[in-house]
Amino acid sequence: MKKTPFLILIFSILTLYTSCKSTLAKLERSNDYNELYNGAIAFYERGKYEKAKILFERIYPYYRGAEEAEKIRYYWAYSEFYQGFYQLSSYQFKEFYQTFGRSPMAEEAQYMEAYSLYMDAPDADLDQGSSEQAVLAMQNFLNRYPASQYYQKANEIIDELQVRFETKAYSNAKLYYKLTTGLSYRTYLEAALVTFEAFKEDYPDSKYNEELLYLSVETSFKLADNSIVSKRKERFDQTIDLYKEFKEKYPESEYTTKVESYYELSIQELNKLKID
C-alpha cells in the first residue's frame, strides 16, 4: 500500500523525536564536555530549548571562567525564556550581565531580565507583584543605558504597566465601595474613603477620579448619616468639603445632580444638629 503524505509526515516527526531523545540520552551519559557543549549548542539552534537547557545546566560549572561560559549562560537564559519560564529567564539574564558586565550582550541581557518579568506580569485584575518588579528592573535598565536601542520599548512597557497599576487600584477602590452597600456596610465606609483618597493621590490625572470623587461624596454622607451624634457634624462637614471639591473640579459632570442632593441633605442634617 502506498503511504499517504500525512503518514509519511507523522513517521518523519516520530523518527526525529526518537532521534533527539536518544541523542540527549547519549549525551547525558557522556563525560566529554566538548561533545556536550556542541550538543547543547546544536539543540539550541534547532529550537530544542528544553534539551539544550539540560545540557547547559550540566556543563556550565565545568566551563566557568572559560571563554565558552559567556555563550552558555546567554543561551541558557534564552532557553528558559523561549519555554515561557519567565521568572527563571529573568534570573538567568541577571546572572549573565552581573557575571559578564563587559560583554557586548550585557545591555541586551539586562533589558531581557526586565522584559522577562514583564512577560510574567498578570492581567490588571490579579496581583501585580511581577509588574512592580518589571517596572523597577526596566527603570534600572534605562538608568544604566539611557541611549539604548531598547529605550523606546522599555518606556512603552513602563507606561503599559502603570496603566495596569491604575486599573488594579481602581478595581480595589470599587470593591471597597461595593462592600459599603452590603449587609456589613458600616465596617467598610471609612476604609472606602481612605482608598478613594489614596487613589487620587497616586493617580492625580486618572480618568477614574471623577467617578471616585462622586463616590467619596456619597460614601462620606453615608458615613456621617450612620455616625453617633458626637461625630455627625464633623462628618457632614467633610461631605460638604468633598462636594465643593467635586464642583470645582467637575462643574459639568454627569454626577452633578447626585452630589448636589448629598450636599443639600448634609446641610439639612447640620441644621438639625444646630436646633438640637
**CATH homologous superfamily descriptor of the domain at 180-276:** Tetratricopeptide repeat domain
Our Rg estimate from Cα atoms comes to 30 Å
> Looking at CATH, which topology of the domain at 180-276 would you report?
Serine Threonine Protein Phosphatase 5, Tetratricopeptide repeat
Q: Fraction of residues in helices? A: over 70%
Beta-strand content:
under 5%
Q: Average pLDDT across residues? A: 89
Q: How many DSSP H or I helices?
A: 12
CATH class of the domain at 180-276: Mainly Alpha
Chart the SSEs and their pairings.
Elements: H1 5-29, H2 33-45, H3 49-63, H4 68-82, H5 86-99, H6 106-120, H7 129-144, H8 151-179, H9 189-202, H10 209-225, H11 229-249, H12 256-275
Q: How is this structure best described in words?
A:
By secondary structure, this protein is mainly α. The protein has twelve helices and no strands. The protein has a domain of 97 residues: Tetratricopeptide repeat domain (Serine Threonine Protein Phosphatase 5, Tetratricopeptide repeat). Helices cover 78% and strands 0% of the residues. About 5% of the residues have low confidence.
